[in-house]
Specification:
It contains 18 helices and no strands. It is globular. The termini are far apart. The chain is about 80% helix and about 0% strand. The structure holds 4-fluoro-L-phenylalanine. The site of 4-fluoro-L-phenylalanine has 16 residues, from helix 1, helix 2, helix 5, helix 10 and helix 14. The site of 4-fluoro-L-phenylalanine (PFF) has 16 residues, from helix 1, helix 2, helix 5, helix 10 and helix 14.
Length: about 450
């Protein structure tokens, strides 16, 4: 245990965690659901969800991780020896790998589209063809596979270098760069003529759209966006030193994740509306609508539109990478600490395992599109399994564990650094109440309604 690494400072803790949090979820989902569920009204609900429901889960994972300084399995086995809780630790070794498998497919697409942007393939004369380009690309066999291997390879390379020289160093550079890029793109997008409608779509509050579905969407999005319930934040917190204030690191991460999501909204939606296209989310938005817009814009100033498209796909690629490394690190920490594997072996092993599942996910758009699991393609099955089930169950169980199984004094000790943080000491009863009652009850209710409702 003695050679275990820690993140170097508060700033790097927050940057690494924000790196995990900021990803595809912020760019391709958040802007759309904000518009669909009532603009500023939804943002308000989302903020409440983040800070009253997701933050307590984040803290639960942080408490377990930082208390033990161990991987998910080791942490649960140490805190609840001889009980079934270790299975939660083991489950969360696998959940991020499932996410990583399909996330890498999209990471690969982003890499491919960055190459297309660099080689100036989004041109006014082929604007229409640009939209169908994605269908052709994603259903083909070799292109997506090669790009996925490159993306997974980059992920493994960063993880291989370890917590300080790999993850921390990458996040320290990538997070500031991501913020600069997204601000530049947002400024450009807002100043396009006709962008006003897009801004309205995001900010006009419409409280009538706050249906029960909107609440479920806010909760699901905040889990995914903050990488909760799958042991990622637990593992990252295990690299946080004993004198760090984990309320500040979790709160800071949630703040930057939210800020980036809102900026992404202003980067994407005004451009979509300026082009007179219906808003959408997911792959269609990023790989069809936006390239089409980049191509069209080229009829004005070609250099600017080329630059914006390059910056945009670079943003997506870097954001996806800073998330994917956190997914791989969970399993690597487990293999290194529990199975005594050297780091390089653990990384290669997980690279191969995710590659195998990733290949199936990638091919499920073309060659394997006929293979269905419970009515879903392999890619969609992995996505639904992770986002609708594994994350929710994991989040629920982590908060139940900290609220009901762990000793209250230990929880207080961990949150307040042995009673030395007087501000946190005052907040403790409120935070504990959220962890023990509010979070589990609300998540269980929303989960059951979505399963049977
Ligand atoms: N938070 C990432 C995003 O918004 O794209 C996704 C994610 C990362 C989910 C890490 C789960 C995880 F463990």
């Amino acid at each position: 245990m003695s050679s275990r690494e820690n993140f170097g400072s508060r700033a790097t803790v927050i940057m690494a965690m924000a790196g995990s949090a900021i990803g595809l979820g912020n760019i391709w989902r958040f802007p759309f659901i904000v518009g669909e569920y009532g603009g500023a009204a939804f943002i308000l609900v989302y903020i409440l969800c983040c800070f009253l429901l997701s933050l307590p889960i984040f803290l639960s994972e942080s408490i377990i991780g930082r208390r033990t300084h161990q991987n998910t399995f080791g942490a649960m086995s140490t805190l609840a020896p001889g009980t079934a809780w270790k299975w939660l630790g083991l489950l969360t070794v696998f959940s991020p790998l499932i996410i990583l498998s399909y996330y890498s497919v999209v990471g690969g697409w982003s890499f491919a589209y960055l190459c297309k942007a660099v080689t100036l393939q989004f041109k006014p004369e082929n604007a229409e063809a640009v939209t169908s380009m994605f269908g052709q690309f994603s259903t083909s066999t070799w292109g997506p596979l090669v790009c996925m291997v490159i993306f997974l390879g980059l992920t493994a390379l960063i993880v291989y270098f370890g917590v300080n020289k790999g993850i921390e160093r990458f996040s320290k550079i990538s997070i500031p760069v991501l913020f600069v890029l997204i601000v530049l793109i947002a400024v450009y997008s807002i100043t396009l003529s006709g962008a006003g409608e897009g801004v309205k779509y995001l900010v006009n509050p419409d409280f009538s759209k706050l249906t029960p579905d909107a609440f479920a969407a806010a909760l699901g999005q905040s889990f995914f966006s903050l990488s909760l319930g799958v042991g990622t934040m637990l593992t990252y917190s295990s690299y946080v030193s004993k004198d760090e204030n984990i309320l500040v690191s979790a709160g800071g991460t949630a703040f930057f994740d939210l800020l980036f999501a809102i900026l992404a909204g202003f980067a994407v939606m005004p451009a979509v509306f300026a082009a007179g296209i219906a808003p959408s989310s997911g792959p269609g938005l990023v790989f069809e609508t936006l390239p089409f817009i980049f191509a069209k814009m080229g009829s004005g100033a070609q250099i600017i539109s080329a630059a914006v498209s390059i910056l945009f796909f670079l943003t997506i690629l870097v954001a996806a990478l800073s998330s994917s490394i956190s997914m791989m690190e969970v399993g690597v920490a487990y293999l290194v600490e529990e199975k005594k594997q050297p780091r390089h072996k653990a990384t290669v092993l997980l690279f191969v395992v995710t590659l195998v599942i990733g290949v199936l996910c990638a091919l499920s758009f073309g060659t394997l599109s006929g293979v269905k699991l419970f009515g879903n393609t392999i890619f969609n099955f992995c996505d639904k399994l992770a986002s609708n089930f594994l994350m929710t169950v994991g989040a629920l169980l982590f908060s139940v564990f900290v609220g009901w199984k762990m000793d209250k004094a230990a929880v207080r000790d961990e949150l307040t650094n042995g009673g030395t943080l007087s501000g946190v000491k005052k907040l403790f009863p409120f935070v504990y109440f959220l962890i023990k009652y509010v979070t589990p009850v609300t998540i269980a209710a929303i989960f059951l309604i979505s399963l049977f409702g």
